Description:
Chain A is an all-alpha fold. Chain A has helices spanning 2-22, 34-46, 52-60, 62-87. Chain A has one domain. Chain A is built from four helices and no strands. Chain B is elongated and about 55 Å long. Chains A and B meet through helix 2, helix 3 and helix 4 of A and helix 4 and helix 5 of B.
Amino acid sequence: MKRWLTLAAFAVVAGCLFLAGARMRPFGAPRFDLMDRYFNAWSQKEVAANNVVTAIVFDYRGYDTLGEATVLFVAVVGVTLILRRIKK
Amino acid sequence: MSVVVRTIARILAPVILVFGGYVILHGHLTPGGGFQGGAVAASAVALVLVAFGAPAVKRLKAPFSVLEDLGGVAFVVLGFLGLGFTFFANSLAGMGSLFGTPVPPGPNPGYLNTAGTLPLMNWAVGLKVIGGLGTVLVLFGLVGRDDDR
Lengths: 88, 149
């Protein structure tokens, strides 16, 4: 039962991957740059920041940065938990 | 470590700290930002740790964990500031108050008093990275044997 479930999940994921690969844009075709042009045109007006990368990282994708900060926090907590006993 | 390494570390560590502060402070104008500047400043901690050993760094009683908690809480609070619009909306940009000067579109030399909550978030993340990496470095240094001194 468990093996069949695993196989089914694998088949679904592999099928989705192959579907996405089949639908990929042809090699060399122009990429979608709608968001790029939006960020370049509006980050100075909306965020008032010259640095577009910082505008994306801390404003448009601020939630992502919160996740990164959480990753750092969890890493520090893990290291502290592992090494605290040895310290004494 | 030897006297040469200690002397050089005494000279270089403040310079590295100042450069990390510069990278964090100008995060909204130049390449870099909170993470990068924090990592640069933490490398100063690593230098002092290599030169003087981990017990000496621990005797300084630098509040690394307090810095990290402060940075994390400040980051989340700054995110909540934009809650009238969305989470992490930049509520200070262009409002004329703190960091609120509008930026003239197109190329410009870069003005420090712009970008709203971005510089504050840079400082929050920078403090968080300094604190976190400092804690990890000091803990790693305390675990390793210090026979090379």
